[in-house]
Design goal:
- This protein is α/β, with parallel strands linked by helices and about 375 residues long.
- The chain folds into 2 domains: about 190 residues, 3-Layer(aba) Sandwich (Rossmann fold), CATH 3.40.50; about 170 residues, Rossmann fold, CATH 3.40.50.2000.
- Helix content is about 40%, strand content about 15%.
- The protein contains 14 helices and 13 strands.
- A 7-stranded parallel β-sheet has the order 3-2-1-4-5-6-7, sandwiched between helices. A 6-stranded parallel β-sheet has the order 10-9-8-11-12-13, with helices on both faces.
- Helix 1 packs across helix 14, helix 3 crosses helix 4 and helix 10 packs across helix 13.
- The longest helix is centred in the N-terminal third of the chain and has 25 residues.
- The protein is globular, with a radius of gyration of 21 Å.
Length: about 375
């Protein structure tokens, strides 16, 4: 049996796909002969799948771009590349002959799902966000199964038969959930409070600068920070050379579970994957949604968790270093509050999401 997964571009799309592919590989009933992934050379998938531990996934890059309706030049370029990507995907599908095609969102998923629908190959999509992306909205009525992270997303597919939709949650890699605290890995001390800051797979210049500026105001002073910057170029040299600050700067971190395991508090954007991982590991958080997300979907994602009391939600436009330091100090000084937030966050975790998605794939295969 052969499975084709398509989509990606960002970690929010790719890491759920990686969780699904790892689950498929280990599935006892589905005798998987080969797994392939269609994405782009520019997406995070190209970098991750080039690593030796992922060589069991056959990667096929195509030409594809998002439809940027605010910039006419980029929109025209995307429209010009679309037929090329469609042709490339068709050639690979005819060569690979998949039994099931799984789309995980993002512009790179469109062409594979399009041909899967047209050629009668069983198709499944997973929507990570509370508001579905353009590809999933366009093709949702034609695919065989739609898996959703949030039940509130069902309203966008209200015209479809209910049996076609399954609210599964977002699949999280088991290695992330099962990670054990290892402070030495980051050069940190177990007895000091630890803050983990991450701005998504590409980093966040705003979060990086704001946290660095707020650090001197954080109490207790021995608080330590793991900060995934995405790029150190956004940091002033004074920050890079501050040997007194207990800050670990990382341009990228694939094994997020290691940082979650040692963190007492997380500061992050509100991508669907990040939120699912936070809930799965039960970590209290300060969420700062990226304001540039399509249809403000990060804010919509974050509201679900904020309403539960498991995190604090603040807009980027309302946040500066002084305010951030105040929120951090309030939380770190109230261990009971942090414990309560952790409990509320854990209650939202859906670690069985991967198993449910795999069952849906199994049903498609047998059908």
């Amino acid at each position: 049996m052969k499975i084709l997964v398509a989509g990606g571009g960002t970690g929010g799309h790719f890491y759920p796909a990686l969780a699904i592919m790892e689950g498929l590989r280990q599935h006892p009933q589905l005798k998987i002969e080969e797994i392939a992934y269609i994405g782009t050379k520019r997406g995070i998938e190209a970098r991750i799948l080039a690593q030796p531990q992922h060589h069991w996934i056959r990667f096929f890059p195509i030409r594809a771009r998002g439809l940027d309706r605010e910039h006419i030049g980029r929109l025209l370029l995307a429209l010009l590349e679309m037929p090329i990507g469609l042709f490339q995907s068709l050639c690979f599908i005819r060569q690979f002959k998949p039994d099931v095609i799984i789309g995980v969102g993002g512009y790179a998923a469109f062409s594979s799902l399009f041909w899967g629908i047209l050629l009668g190959i069983p198709t499944l999509i997973h929507e990570q966000n509370s508001k579905p992306g353009l590809v999933n909205k366009l093709l949702g009525r034609w695919v065989n199964k739609i898996c959703l992270t949030y039940s509130k997303t069902e309203r966008y597919f209200a015209q479809l038969p209910k049996e076609k939709i399954a609210v599964t949650g977002l699949p999280v890699r088991p290695t992330l959930v099962n990670a054990q605290p290892n402070y030495e890995q980051f050069g940190l001390k177990r007895e000091h409070p630890t803050i983990f800051v991450v701005g998504g797979s590409r980093g966040s210049e705003f979060l990086t600068k704001t946290v660095m500026e707020a650090y001197s105001q954080i109490r207790p002073q021995e608080a330590q920070v793991i900060l995934v910057t995405g790029s150190h170029s956004a940091l002033p040299n004074t920050y890079k050379q501050d040997s007194d600050a207990r800050i670990v700067l990382l341009p990228y971190l694939e094994e997020m579970g290691a940082a979650f395991a040692v963190a007492d508090l997380v500061i992050c954007r509100a991508g669907a994957t990040t939120l699912a991982e936070l809930a799965a590991v039960g970590k209290p958080a300060i969420l700062v949604p990226w304001p540039g997300a399509a249809e403000n979907h990060q804010y919509e994602n974050a509201r679900v968790l904020a309403e539960s009391g498991g995190c604090i939600l603040t807009q980027e436009s309302d946040l500066d270093a002084k305010k951030l330091a105040g929120i951090i100090n309030q939380l770190l000084s109230d261990r009971e509050k942090l414990t309560e937030m952790k409990s509320r966050m854990s209650a939202l975790g859906r670690t069985a999401a991967l198993d449910q998605i795999l069952r849906e794939v199994e049903v498609l295969v047998h059908a």
